[in-house]
Specification:
The protein folds into 2 domains: 25-175, Up-down Bundle (Four Helix Bundle (Hemerythrin (Met), subunit A)); 182-279, SCP2 sterol-binding domain (Nonspecific Lipid-transfer Protein, Chain A, 2-Layer Sandwich). Strand 4 (219-225) and strand 5 form a beta hairpin. The longest helix is centred in the first third of the chain and has 22 residues, at 59-80. The protein has helices at residues 25-42, 59-80, 86-89, 95-106, 113-134, 149-166, 168-171, 179-192, 246-253, 270-274, 276-279, and strands spanning 139-142, 145-148, 207-213, 219-225, 228-233, 240-244, 265-268. By secondary structure, the protein is α+β, with helices and mostly antiparallel strands. Helix 2 (59-80) runs parallel beside helix 5 (113-134), helix 2 runs antiparallel to helix 6 and helix 8 (179-192) crosses helix 9. The chain has a 5-stranded mixed beta sheet with strand order 5-4-3-6-7. The N and C termini lie close together (6 Å).
Length: 283
Amino acid sequence: MGHAGRAVLAEPSGTGLDLSRVPGPLEQLDAARNWYFESLDAVGDDGWQRASRCQGWTAGDVVAHVAGGDYLVRSAILDATGRDRSLLAAVPADLGQSAQWARLITVSDPKSLREVAHRESQQTIAALREVLQQAPQTKLRMPYGETPVTNALAIRTAEYVIHGYDLQPASGRFVAAPAWFIDATLPRGAQGMWRTHALSPHKGKSASFHLHRTDGEGEWTLRAENGQGRSEPGHESADVMFRGSGAGLYWLLMGRGSPQDLGLEIHGDPALAAAFKEWFPGP
């Protein structure tokens, strides 16, 4: 989805879009895409080289990344449905190379970033909508392996919101992420982030981090021990506890700010708390 994010200054709260009652996956995809477009279109023509929340990435890098992801999904759909297998056949098999290739093929001219982003998204969402309505059991051959088209839909939805958020420092438009998105993705993120400990420089050491949501239901504990990561729902003791809003906890998991920047309470070892993303890197 991106890189572990840099610390950002606390921004003023925004009302966001009233999407709390979005009913289904396709509607959520449309809502997420529209939210992303609002961030994208707020970036000025001179803003593509400004920093984003993705560490080491400019706003232009983020937009090219999203457009490349859209292109890969659409190519996989055309391949799976037999309409055009040439696009996916041209994609390098290596995951890192395929992502870079997709970015280059979709955005050859930085001046066309905005236009390309809109076009790739519109075409990909149309392809997703059609295949989900006609053959929802379809599986796609993606660079990271075969995946159900429903998973591709969920990934595109998350990419739009996460990277729309990443563009905010470049656009100057600071708006809270949709409530339905945080409610849906925080539990998945908290329960799945243990996998990233395999990439940690602290692998082999032990530490534990408890997340406690204060504006809704949800508690989770991420543990690293014996070279393995694991996540457990519910209240448990830990070396560090983070308390705060669902949005603050989610963006902490995604590496989009320090606990302090995100308005989280910290209980326990402050140095360990500051190093949280070293223990569970990414995504």
